[in-house]
Write a structure and sequence with these properties.
Layout: E1 5-9, H1 11-17, H2 21-36, E2 40-48, E3 56-65, E4 71-80, E5 91-98, E6 105-110, H3 112-130, E7 137-141, H4 145-158, E8 162-166, H5 170-184, E9 189-190, H6 194-198, E10 203-206, E11 227-230, E12 247-250, H7 253-256, H8 265-269, E13 280-281, H9 282-286, E14 300-303, H10 308-325, E15 329-332
Helix pairs in contact: 1-10, 2-3, 2-10, 3-4, 3-10, 4-5
Length: 334
């Protein structure tokens, strides 16, 4: 047997690749379109809760994406809420890519940054198709890594006049607002409470870090015509939120309809979000198979659990760009 090698990209290699906002969005939008056309395979994510008394769990995402990428992938990402107490990010991840014809491993990549970027990109692509074109005010709950990319990539599309952010800890939300202000070149306001952050916003993103479900985001704060994206692991919305929606969209119904986690889990269990009430998966809209926003007056909800396809597509784009720069490490497998 000939020697087998794979590529390893650590966090520094991924940062060196420095994908632009446009490159990130293009990779994710293309993968969503492929999903809508049936050119992918998604297995619903599974969870591992390894230890009682620890606020955290592992997510395992699996999938295959065709086209010029033609790669299978598995991502394992730990989600541990209390990591900040040790000065650590809440999420650590590894993405493994494989040749789908032989099963041979082709790459191992740090997936922490990939997770943040692809999550923000899915939020932004959702807004591209589902938010009002003239949206000027963003209200964002949460300040973790995915939150940064939500705001940055949304602003790259909408150039907001007002950006408001909130998170539970003052030091967290203030630092988040300061970083965004520097990077975006505009004022970002850190609010002291949920209501002043999201009320009357054109786009509302809820990426909170609750340890247990709690209805912190009130339905009455959502203005008609808004685009709302709740995706916290634990529900932070009222059961009535879905009642005001003109359309409800998800990234993948297969993984939204099952499992114990997710911001709209109670809505699924109550029958408020079902195959009958679901408008579409985002990939169907991107592929042109179903309409996105059709009227300014529509109030639209988008719930994304996180797609393995997004990790694979973005991982492939980073791998390709890193190779062109000579970044990464060649490891012998066999």
């Amino acid at each position: 047997m000939q020697p087998i090698y794979l590529t390893y990209l650590n966090r520094h290699d991924i940062e060196a690749a420095a994908l632009s906002d446009a490159e990130i969005l293009a990779a994710i939008e293309a993968s969503l379109g492929m999903q809508g056309r049936g050119e992918t395979v998604i297995e619903p994510r599974v969870h591992l809760e390894p230890k009682a008394g620890v606020e955290g769990h592992f997510n395992v995402l699996r999938g295959w994406i065709g086209g010029e990428i033609d790669a299978a992938g598995v991502k394992v990402v730990g989600d541990f809420v209390d990591n900040y107490k040790q000065g650590l990010p809440s999420e650590f991840g590894i993405l493994n890519l494989f040749d789908p014809r032989t099963g041979m491993p082709t790459a191992i990549m740090d997936a922490s940054g990939i997770t943040d970027m692809r999550t923000g990109a899915v939020t932004a692509v959702g807004a591209k198709y589902l938010a009002r074109k003239g949206s000027k005010t963003l209200g964002h709950i949460g300040a973790r890594g995915t939150a940064y990319w939500n705001v940055r990539l949304l602003d790259s599309l909408f150039d907001f006049e007002t950006i408001r952010v909130h998170s539970r800890r003052p030091e967290s939300r203030n630092a988040f607002a300061e970083k965004l202000s520097r990077d975006l070149g505009k004022e970002v306001i850190a609010t002291d409470d949920w209501r002043s952050c999201v009320e009357d916003a054109d786009i509302v993103v809820e990426a909170s870090r609750l340890s247990a479900p709690q209805p912190m985001l009130k339905t009455e704060w959502i203005k008609p015509g808004a685009f709302v994206v709740p995706y916290g692991t634990m529900s932070a919305v009222e059961l009535s939120l879905t009642d005001i929606m003109s359309k409800m969209v998800v990234d993948d119904w297969g993984q939204c309809k099952g499992g114990k986690f997710g911001s709209l889990r109670a809505h699924v269990e109550a029958g408020k979000l079902s195959e009958a009430t679901l408008h579409a998966e985002l990939g169907q809209i991107v592929a042109g198979l179903k309409p996105g926003r059709e009227k300014d007056a529509e109030t639209i909800l988008f719930w994304h659990r996180g797609l393995s396809l997004s990790d694979i597509a973005l991982g492939h784009a980073i791998l390709k760009k890193a190779a062109g720069m000579g970044a990464g490490h060649r490891l012998r497998y066999a």
